[in-house]
Amino acid sequence: MSLQIVAVVALVITLVITLGIAGLVLFTAQIARRVERALPPTGRFIEIDGARIHYVERGTGAVTLLLVHGLGGNARHYTHSLVERLAHEFRVIVMERPGSGYSTRAAGAEAGPIAQAETVAAFIRALGLDRPVLVGHSLGGAIALATAVAHPSHVRALALIAPLTILPDTPPAVFKGLMVASPLVRKAISWTLATPLAMARREVLLGAIFGPEAVPADFALAGGGMLGMRPSAFMAAATDVMAVPADMPRLAQRYHALSMPIAVLFGTHDRILDPQRHGEALGEMIPTMQLEWVEGAGHMLPLTVPDRVAHFVASVAARAG
Fold first, then answer.
1. Going edge to edge, which strands form the sheet with 91-95?
2. pTM of this prediction?
């Protein structure tokens, strides 16, 4: 084969690859626009340390509940079913973590639970909240713990729902696709492969996250599931996942200092975080902690058993006085 033919073949291959990438970028941008038209922000925004934080507020009770969502989540994970069950008694605020939902992450900001806890503490101060009960689900549980460890005077009590409490030996299989070390590669994937792959594997991903319970029929819209199709959602989740290992061991070393009321609610059949490792093990480090179980339930308790979660949160608030 002559050099001219080789050059032409190489050029054709380059053009095909370039057009393929451009097509994926355009497809991703189109899906993101459609999702944001269908699910616009429903709350308010506040600037916190260079980040633009989106939050939703309901109710006017004397005690404030500050809800922090988990990995890849957004405010609608709570507003789907849980907030309405609490707002008649409490002031309920759902904060979308930096980079998640409609919140942005400041350029160059760290993403580990300890750094995100500083954002939560700054958010509490900025809104003038009087020692809220901090409610954290999954990764949000680790961030709630980190907030209480670093700023105990900011927190009345902790109500933790299927929380991440220690560094797992291996990440949940469903999240392994998020483990991309290079920020540049993360960004490239988020704008090319992440959205079509998420759409193609939707049933598998949701089955793993919600199982053994069924995914709510309206999760895509009312539960905010579609917001996870945007490139920013992949970027935020991958960044969060890669930042966890550096923080969890040193965070766990400080749990013994916590003295406020703390309770944990776990589904016995959680497929994402092992209930014994993340629930019972935390109880060994914090002897005053209360651990409750939801028999047969999985990981997404705020969406699948909202009545049980609402009762759990209200009981923690009552203990706090």
1. 44-48, 51-58, 91-95, 64-68, 133-137, 157-161, 262-267, 290-294
2. 0.91
